[in-house]
């Protein structure tokens, strides 16, 4: 780890360059660099082909991000999260900005960022609570600057907290009263699935029960919970099956019935697809 203060005619910055342990580098989401930047003059930063992911928060001022052919205006309270293997640039002009930022990487970051994008995550968005991001950046900086012998694990904990916040907030920004009403409607449907998973449930039946177009229902449910109705129902059924396999002596036929899958062979096939082992193997293992 190396701390540095840097000032030239364009920026005033303070950063920590961090080298994780061999274990952390191979197995954990790990820190590469963290710091703050205050622009002294208009300037542009360009990067590409970095094995890194960048998050930064605009603490004050304004500027622009160019990423994947699109230019995004940025202002105080805006967040940026991007894959630095792709070409990007950011610049500030008249209203000079102050940024807090962190570069990080990990063996599973490519899949995580892909999921972030699939769920509707954008390269930039306005934070509902900029203070939450500032707090995480401050905590990361303090840990990186410490001599804790579990420093890499603590950094991993904070970086995963940052990722969870990014997944949640960028994908479900604060909406209008109408959006809140839609969220309540979908919660009702989720609770119905939680209580009726033993029954035969179709999208058409749900749409009829809740007086909503089935295609609209599908889109709203996935927008709110990140999975389709059918996939959520499958998760509930498999979770209940796992409970019965571990804590009951019921037969596979009875378990399949209690989980809303009346064919034991179909149940076994679906269970293996999800858990990568048969129900019998799961029962013996646990």
Describe the structure.
Strands 1-2-3-10-5-8-11 form a seven-stranded antiparallel sheet, with helices on one face. Strands 4-9-6-7 form a four-stranded antiparallel sheet, with no helix packed on it. The chain has eleven helices and eleven strands. The longest helix is centred in the middle third of the chain and has 21 residues, at 151-171. The protein is of the alpha+beta class and 286 residues long. Residues 173-182 have low confidence and may be disordered.
Quick take:
This protein is of the alpha+beta class and 286 residues long.
Q: Which short descriptors sum up this protein?
A:
single chain, seven-stranded antiparallel β-sheet, four-stranded antiparallel β-sheet, alpha+beta, 286 residues, 11 helices
Write out the strand line-up for the largest beta sheet, numbering strands in chain order. 1-2-3-10-5-8-11
Question: Residue-averaged pLDDT, rounded?
Answer: 88
Broad shape? elongated
Strand count: 11
Order of helices and strands: EEHEEEEEEEEHEHHHHHHHHH
Query: In which range does the helix fraction lie?
Result: 40-55%
Poorly predicted regions are 173-182
* Total helical segments: 11
Topology:
Elements lengths: L1 E6 L3 E7 L4 H6 L2 E10 L3 E5 L5 E8 L1 E6 L2 E6 L2 E6 L4 E5 L5 E8 L3 H10 L5 E3 L3 H15 L6 H21 L5 H20 L6 H7 L4 H12 L3 H19 L4 H7 L5 H12 L3 H7 L1
Antiparallel strand pairs: 1-2, 2-3, 3-10, 4-9, 5-8, 5-10, 6-7, 6-9, 8-11
Helix pairs in contact: 3-4, 5-7, 8-9, 8-11
